[in-house]
Write a structure and sequence with these properties.
The radius of gyration is 17 Å and the shape is globular. The protein is of the alpha/beta class. The protein has a single domain, classed as 3-Layer(aba) Sandwich (UDP-N-acetylmuramoyl-L-alanine:D-glutamate ligase), CATH 3.40.1190. The chain is built from 8 helices and 9 strands. Helix content is 37%, strand content 21%.
């Protein structure tokens, strides 16, 4: 692996509606000039109204997908999304122990619930994330509910966000991007804190029901920036610009939580 070329290996579940998961990840990576490869962890039957079925991929086959992609194409960054359970999480952690994760930055989006509220990771899986994967990743990108589950505390104020982020850093994370979109009020503040410094990203909340896949899209956009050689804070800033544009460009599909407008028609992020 020489100069960064924008290759992103995505380890995540498939979303049959195209709004989140592997589908959103690939659209995001391509829109931002990267090249996405995949290791699919689960098939889901879902639409904008909810998740109607989950079919996990055998853990050994998840790892086989990762291995053959890295052996041939390589990766400049890895994005991990839905793992679904402890067995797959353990297998992914075991495999990542065999590669130099300091040379290949990893972004972990700890997917636990779908936008509609369906559970996508069990308690043993959360434990594996904390114990095995946290120390390997460059960036953890939880929303408030995910951070509460991992940090073991309630988060209902900006001060509580900072305290929870500190707990996650103490648990082994190198950097945490804690997303504050579920706090009350019109202001949206995401907190980036860790060994690479501290920054806050301020936006106004967009009133819309079309937010399906926002977390997947943000994490994949950060991973693409890292894969193309951006430092962490710039990659996060560029990812925020992209997600804001994608929300504004939502196509309006579906009767529930609709997808974003991930597409090459969007302006290049300013980060």
């Amino acid at each position: 692996m020489t100069a960064p070329q924008g290759r992103v290996l995505i380890v995540a579940g498939s979303d049959s509606s195209g709004g989140a998961g592997i589908q959103a990840d690939l659209k995001t990576v391509a829109a931002l000039g990267g090249y996405g490869t995949t290791a699919i962890t689960a098939l889901t039957a879902q639409n904008t109204l909810g998740v109607f079925g989950v079919h996990p991929v055998p853990a050994e086959f998840v790892v086989r997908q990762m291995r053959v992609v890295l052996d041939d194409i390589g990766a400049d960054a890895i994005k991990i999304g839905m793992l679904g359970g402890a067995e797959i999480a353990e297998a992914v952690a075991d495999f990542l122990n065999t590669i130099d994760t300091r040379r290949v930055p990893i972004v972990l989006d700890p997917v636990m619930l779908s936008t509609s509220g369906s559970p996508l990771l069990d308690a043993p899986g959360v434990a594996v994330l904390k114990q095995r994967l946290l120390p390997m990743v460059l960036l953890l990108t939880p929303n408030l509910a995910e951070a509460e589950a991992m940090a073991g505390c309630r988060i209902d104020t900006p001060a509580a966000m900072e305290a929870a982020a500190d707990r996650l850093l103490a648990a082994g994370a190198r950097n945490v991007l804690l997303k504050g979109g579920h706090l009350e009020g019109d202001a949206l503040v995401d907190l980036l804190i860790g060994v690479d410094g501290r920054a806050e990203f301020h936006h106004r909340k967009v009133v819309t029901r079309h937010t399906h896949g926002t977390g997947c899209t943000l994490a994949s956009a950060v991973a693409t920036g890292l894969a193309r050689g951006l430092p962490l804070a710039r990659a996060v800033a560029a990812a925020h610009d992209y997600v804001q544009a994608a929300i504004r460009s939502a196509p309006g599909f579906g009767h529930g939580n609709g997808p974003l407008g991930q597409g090459p028609f969007l302006d290049e992020p300013s980060g």
